[in-house]
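Batch manifest line 161
LIGAND: zinc ion
JOB: complex structure
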Amino acid sequence: MSPTARSNPRDRLVHLDEPAVRELNAVAAILESLAVRRAPAFDAARRARLRAANARLRRAPDAVTAAIADSEVHALLVEPGADGDVLAMLRPVRGALRTCAARRPGDGAERHAAEHDAVIDALAAGDHALAARRLREHVAGGLPALLEGVANRTDRAGRAA
Ligand SMILES: [Zn+2]
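JOB STATUS: finished
ARTIFACT:
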């Protein structure tokens, strides 16, 4: 790694290796779950925004559009009204993981959106503990796709940098 890369935080994050991605994704799963567990009740308007973002994920024509819609869903789940301390921990973790986002195949989007629906359903029922558990499993279950992203990045860039 060049001295320049070492001094630039963003470049350090780009060079996350597989063990780091595993740990950071586990942290993201815990923090997103915690944020939802501690959040105030989700009103109908917020749930409607969640369903709309999830619908965009379902009909996304490509992986980039799907990733944007997925980010919207997760931001809506976690951010409005969330505990500020939890968010302060979560944001840099999310930012780091975003650098190795996978190219998801189209059929993955439907399963992914269905898992979001299960979280939103639990929130609609006022069961934040269940929503939190489902969200934690959903984020943890995204690890293989993230690791695929890391492998693809390594294939592309090698250790040439
Ligand atoms: Zn998701």
